[in-house]
Amino acid sequence: MPSTGPHSLRDMPHPLAGSSSEEAVGGDSTPSPDLLMARSFGDKDLILPNGGTPAGTSSPASSSSLLNRLQLDDDIDGETRDLFVVVDDPKKHVCTMETYITYRITTKSTRVEFDLPEYSVRRRYQDFDWLRSKLEESQPTHLIPPLPEKFVVKGVVDRFSEEFVETRRKALDKFLKRITDHPVLSFNEHFNIFLTAKDLNIYKKQGIALLTRMGESVKHVTGGYKLRTRPLEFAAIGDYLDTFALKLGTIDRIAQRIIKEEIEYLVELREYGPVYSTWSALEGELAEPLEGVSACIGNCSTALEELTDDMTEDFLPVLREYILYSDSMKSVLKKRDQVQAEYEAKLEAVALRKEDRPKVPVDVEKCQDRMECFNADLKADMERWQNNKRQDFRQLLMGMADKNIQYYEKCLMAWESIIPLLQEKQEAK
Amino acid sequence: MEQGPPDPERQLQPAPLEPLGRSEAGLGVAVDEEAEGAGEEGSGGDTMTHNNFWLKKIEISVSEAEKRTGRNAMNMQETYTAYLIETRSVEHTDGQSVLTDSLWRRYSEFELLRNYLLVYYPHIVVPPLPEKRAEFVWHKLSADNMDPDFVERRRIGLENFLLRIASHPILCRDKIFYLFLTQEGNWKETVNETGFQLKADSRLKALNATFRVKNPDKRFTDLKHYSDELQSVISHLLRVRARVADRLYGVYKVHGNYGRVFSEWSAIEKEMGDGLQSAGHHMDVYASSIDDILEDEEHYADQLKEYLFYAEALRAVCRKHELMQYDLEIAAQDLASKKQQCEELATGTVRTFSLKGMTTKLFGQETPEQREARIKVLEEQINEGEQQLKSKNLEGREFVKNAWADIERFKEQKNRDLKEALISYAVMQISMCKKGIQVWTNAKECFSKM
């Protein structure tokens, strides 16, 4: 994995150059000097036993975070965006071997990496999974947005139900939008392939071959050095993520429980309203008021159902996404630790031999560069993520408040409307 | 409905001179009214106090409840709740009320009063007592008889019971009721002296006994049917409402968890921290608001419960009518058969097969003297039976007239009360919605600052 890492680091200040990192998957793109350069770097990486970073390819942290910020601002007004991706139109495919859903992915872009202004392809969940692992592989220093969980409790959730497919479609759409909004990831060539290739399977097979070829170097790095101490700021991020995930997990449980309670409440309300109707059939003068109350409870039930539907569809998935996001973040953090540990180990080795060699060897310097790049990327992504998170949660929680307000307003209207009915009758009498 | 502390409108008015359907049972002592079961045969000497008392405007309240321990008839230790009944007269020109009586009664004494009223006023829909044991409660509510909330709700219910009697055109003049409010000691003995227990028709108590009435009064059968339906629909309503309350409680209380977790989460956030923290506070407010909401709703449930028990009172009147009709038909039947026998004896023909006819045939004819004597006895019996039937008819008509008048009164009261209850229920719901909107608007404000 780290062998492909440096490319992204190099790509960062020049996003337009990042269309390719491996010849195998770069076939579709227009050849360019950048691509050739990338290819040569790529080859070099593959033969480096420890996946060292070529010196001088790193970018200063400030530029990447500045870019992030600019990009973030762009997202807000949406005017300068040059890549738009939409996931829609889920379709069920029934084959002899399996049944699955594909989603249509429509891409519109003015970027030079795209030959056509518009693409439309169909992808299934597996393909998204492939994209994500490719991104993780090729951009190890970046935070890759999470995919919705693959895990489905069989029998409990109907994978092909309209609700499930729609929830998943929304999550997949969000996943691609997050990549699209990212200054680095959006230029990743796997992403490009995913959006444009007619037949993704060709690339998927190549990917496997590549992985086996690289197996050794990946293994080498993950074999691991022990990190002495996490720098304070990353330790803080780690702690933050632990607490964040914990709190979000609690919120998720609370939200689910509320929905469960509300659904049970709804069941009772559905029985409660008609009792007033039954009663009204016995009465003369009271018939109308009782019928009014019955209708009113009916209206409140409908409003409650809308509330629970909205919360299930809009609230829970966002929470889930952020829980998974914090996992992604943690895994990037771990990778960073690994790189630092590697650097520390090398430095230590040098220190032991210091008398022999007064100068720090090149590969240790490379390793330091790699670590610093990683740190810079991670910090930038964390900052982006924090900003997104703040916006998303503000929107999410305000949405929750809004839905509840709307619910109460509907009920209020229903109850207020029957008051005149009750009073009028009394005065008329 | 008519609960809570007495307000000026609830002050007792002197009974009208012509109470509904009981014009002959005026203020005077009506000793000859036993046939109708009227209960105003109290010792004549008290009539003056009686009248004076009721011509005043008075206020009745059950102002306190107290837990007591004593020994029961079996000399066993028992704990019970006593209720303080206060009566105030407001005859003074300045409108100020003066405490005239205050005494303690326990639930069983209220029960005794009601049982007495049921016997003496079978044609009246006697106001029901609040439940002896908490029913249709949702899980957060205690079903313990000594629970302060239950005792308080029962106190209100008992007060309401007394106010209902006091505002009833006929019941309000009852001597025993008056003594219930004014005479602490010996009251039980006085009640028992009326012999109401002897008058009680045990057949009325046999719950499942049905009397096959040939010519039922459709109005009463309809009313009985209505009472059954009313009882079943209200009890269903109360059951479901208790479950609705349970669930609603759950929905609100689970939101309270947001309060805690938002506050904990806010500790690790920078920009979002303040907004989360204060939103958490609003979630706490939201969660605790349900306690008051459901407490108010319990009052609505009590109002419905009163009518659940009223259904039983309504049925009691119907049963009494049924029984009278039954007695009437039996008497008519008896008279008819006697008349037939008499005719048979007179003409010497036996139209129907009977044991008597068989014996006459087997053992020969009786002498004309014997026959004359038997005819005479039968004629006397027929005479008597006719008188009885006439009085039963009269009694029945009277009962129907009075009962129906009270039922009409009850229906009006019911429509008025339940409409009021429904309005107050709707108002409760409105206030709950407004509270909800307020809390969520506050929370939204906090979220928007994140």
TrEMBL record, chain A:
The keyword Transmembrane does not apply. Its main location: membrane. GO terms for cellular component: early endosome membrane; phagophore assembly site. It is a peripheral membrane protein. It comes from the Eukaryota. GO terms for molecular function: phosphatidylinositol binding. Residues 81-202 form the PX domain. Residues 1-41, 46-65 are annotated as: Disordered. It is found in: Early endosome membrane. One of its GO terms (biological process) is piecemeal microautophagy of the nucleus. Keywords: Protein transport, Transport. Residues 55-65 have a biased composition (Low complexity). Belongs to the sorting nexin family. Heterodimer; heterodimerizes with SNX4. This is Sorting nexin-30.
Automatic annotation (TrEMBL), chain B:
Involved in the regulation of endocytosis and in several stages of intracellular trafficking. Plays a role in recycling endocytosed transferrin receptor and prevent its degradation. Involved in autophagosome assembly by regulating trafficking and recycling of phospholipid scramblase ATG9A. The keyword Flavoprotein does not apply. The lineage of its organism: Eukaryota, Metazoa, Chordata, Craniata, Vertebrata. It comes from Saimiri boliviensis boliviensis. Its main location: membrane. One of its GO terms (molecular function) is transferrin receptor binding. Residues 1-50 are annotated as: Disordered. Keywords: Acetylation, Endosome, Lipid-binding, Membrane, Protein transport, Transport. PANTHER family: SORTING NEXIN-4. CDD domains: BAR_SNX4 (cd07622), PX_SNX4 (cd06864). It is a peripheral membrane protein. Heterodimer; heterodimerizes with SNX7 or SNX30. Interacts with WWC1/KIBRA. Identified in a complex with WWC1/KIBRA and dynein components DYNLL1 and DYNC1I2. Interacts with BIN1. This is Sorting nexin-4. It is found in: Early endosome membrane. Belongs to the sorting nexin family. Residues 61-187 form the PX domain. GO terms for cellular component: cytoplasmic dynein complex; early endosome membrane; plasma membrane; presynaptic endosome; SNARE complex. GO terms for biological process: endocytic recycling; positive regulation of autophagosome assembly; positive regulation of histamine secretion by mast cell; protein transport.
